[in-house]
UniProtKB/TrEMBL annotation:
Upper lineage: Bacteria, Bacillati, Actinomycetota, Actinomycetes, Kitasatosporales
Family: Belongs to the AHA1 family.
InterPro entries documented for this protein: ASHA1/2-like_C, START-like_dom_sf
Organism whose genome encodes this protein: Streptomyces rhizosphaericus
SUPFAM superfamilies: Bet v1-like (SSF55961)
A Pfam family hit: AHSA1
Protein name (record): SRPBCC family protein
Superkingdom of the organism of origin: Bacteria
Ranges for domain Activator of Hsp90 ATPase homologue 1/2-like C-terminal: 35-142
Amino acid sequence: MSEIVDQINHVHREVGTREVPDGGARTVLLRRTYDAAIEDVWDACTDPERISRWFLPVSGDLKLGGHYQLTGNAGGEILRCEPPRLLAVSWLFGENPGFSEVEVRLTAEGEERTVFELEHVAVVPPVMWDQFGPGAVGVGWDGALLGLTLHLTGEGAPADPEAWQASDEAREFMTRSSERWGAAYEASGAPAEVVAATARATTEFYVPAR
């Protein structure tokens, strides 16, 4: 197993539900620890130039109450910003996105160690959840945390991200991510047959047969 694929094993995942103003929402949570000071992790998650190095280019009025836009991806409003511990944004994509928010929480464990948590809460169309379960967004967030990991350790993103996405290493990473989200879904109480079907659909989406 490569060091990149092994990063899957450093993330704790949870799946749950929550009531929000728009109704019943689904939640996915990722938690891992970084050997970096909380100020460095916060800066990596909020400085536009650094975000572009490990995630996507971001533009907008990047302050509390302002709006942001990730190139080719989500946009929304900055709802809470409490440096260096809490960032919450609406996470909207498409014409009728519905309720969707992402919250990043940081906790210092000493001077050079930080617990990172990311929770995505969204009202998901039943047909999508029934087909893919939590892996639909979970695999993508695993990829984001991998990018942050490589950035914080100084390794940097692959020189050719598109080529890497098609590599055997990336395919194994996404397959294992899908499996781990299936395990988290089962731990939340989902029936084994539902977990198997959604994990299979997620894997086939992210890792199509060659």
